[in-house]
Design brief:
heterodimer, A: mainly beta, 7-stranded mixed β-sheet, 4-stranded antiparallel β-sheet, 11 strands, 0% helix, 53% strand, B: mainly beta, 6-stranded mixed β-sheet, 5-stranded antiparallel β-sheet
Amino acid sequence: EAGVTQSPTHLIKTRGQQATLRCSPISGHTSVYWYQQALGLGLQFLLWYDEGEERNRGNFPPRFSGRQFPNYSSELNVNALELEDSALYLCASSPYRGGDTQYFGPGTRLTVL
Amino acid sequence: KQEVTQIPAALSVPEGENLVLNCSFTDSAIYNLQWFRQDPGKGLTSLLLIQSSQREQTSGRLNASLDKSSGRSTLYIAASQPGDSATYLCAVKTGANNLFFGTGTRLTVIP
């Protein structure tokens, strides 16, 4: 069974640009979670999608947004990039809303120059 | 707001030693606590999950305990191996289905 996949692996952007990160959950999983792991700040919860709806949001500005598609894959968009957005962005999935275990993908490394 | 702390931030031990990693959290209203392993630049691998009603979980050389009332968990690694070198993260799950992560303990096992 394929795990959670994320693309691209690395992404380099400049300040002010937009970044789009993609995540495909494990087959059969309906919930997708996004986390940011910035240097020195640890893993922070960004967004949770389930059945196509945004269910919860972490303490991030509105320029962080996303969506979940009918096939349960998800996209994270970051607008008006700032230098401090440089981080590893991790996606996780779980088999149903509130599923106990979240399964993580390998991450997308975003670098903002 | 839930805050999760891990001590120590880094640990270096010789191969074969038993070791304990610590995790503390400020709000005892949790659904479960999970220990993860993260290799450099990689995603997370779930090691053990303890439900709020449980006291401990074991998997191979790993044993995790949970004392919800005092807001503490420990991860015990027996007979450490160089392949155990990684960053270990604990995370608590709250009612909002969020995971709150600690900042991790970077473990180095010296051959």
